[in-house]
Amino acid sequence: HPPAAGRFILVTQQLQVGSYCCDQVIGRRLPQVLDSPMRFFEWNPMGRILSCFSRYQDEVDSLVPHHLNALLVFCLIAVCACVVTSVIFPIMLLPLVLLITLFYCVCVCVCVCVCVCVLWFQLTSNCQYMIQSLMEVEARFISVERLLEYITLDPAEDWPRCGAITFQDYQMRYSQNSPVVLNGLQLHVSGGEKLGIVGKTGSGKSSLAAALFRLVEPAAGRILIDGVDITSISLSDLRRKLSIIPQDPVLFTGTVRYNLDPFSVHSDEEVWAALEKTYMKDTVRLSVPAELTQDEGTVSAGQRQLMCLSRALLRNSKIILLDEASASVDAETDSLIQITIRDSFQHCTTLTIAHRIHTILQVDRVLVLDHGQVTASPVQCGSGSGLFRSLVQVHVQVQV
Ligand SMILES: Nc1ncnc2c1ncn2[C@@H]1O[C@H](COP(=O)(O)OP(=O)(O)OP(=O)(O)O)[C@@H](O)[C@H]1O
Ligand SMILES: [Mg+2]
Q: Residue 198: which of 348, 384, 387, 333 has the closest Cα?
């Protein structure tokens, strides 16, 4: 039966459009919303996000295809009516007033006139519905626009190629009412450079790491990595490309392998090779239990940092941030960390938050932070500059 067949096609098409919209907007965009930075969730209450997704998505799923269908049907009818009218009586295509005037003025065959009139009135009513549908479609697309506002850009697969980091007048505060902890940071770190960061406790060294990983969003300014503003990409893309060795790493409950490669994307050989480069192969073989726990007693702070370095090696990150353990790490482990950084991360940009003087002797430049500000432009190691010399002198005095 033709009308039933037509309706079936329409309904099927409507369902297909609805399912496509759902896949495009919810299926692909929802994970990006879940990856949004903390500030997004602070500014947008959960209820608003849920209502946005449910209300707008309902409109996108059901109303947009429905009105789009109606628009298509009315357009089709209008086109048919125009074709028929233009074939039978082309002059009827002129505006309505002119047509009616002409219609009553010109004497035509009654039969043709009736036929044309019926078609014409149908056309005008169709036009009305067509415009109404057009307006509905336009109105519903606002929902699509609103949903698309939550979308972030995808960086290039090989980003960051060089690993250059630029802080442009960067300011950060942990919450809206708390004081600024990084205040107008201006800094450029070239790709592959080894930068040491020093400063008194509370000067903002770990906050700089938090800023780079977007644990906290900027209050002003921006951070560029190879020219890409890190706020323009998703959190998962950003954090996938950087590696951090935190001040006090926490291990997951599970095997060493699970801790190094939680998504099982590397072979056992690659995992052992990474452990070998960080001098952890024998330790893991001989003294680390098969099943790790978050109990800090089983693996020392230095060893946990070395495991983080193995993870960074496996991930092949271009940018490594090492927040040196401030708790005492034995001299041997400490020097192993330094040797690994020097040998295995030669081509990586390395930011080392240093608590020990011999660490900054290994880096290219030293940045001194004080109350969230750079006290002077970073100094070259061994340059004999006043700042570097005074750092060493302070250390020597403390040692004495
Ligand atoms: N989660 C947080 N919420 C609010 N304020 C914080 C938070 N973390 C740090 N701060 C504040 O930010 C400032 C800088 O702290 P940060 O941890 O960056 O110092 P740091 O230089 O790493 O010190 P340390 O050498 O002791 O590790 C401090 O005044 C601290 O009180
Ligand atoms: Mg710190």
A: 387
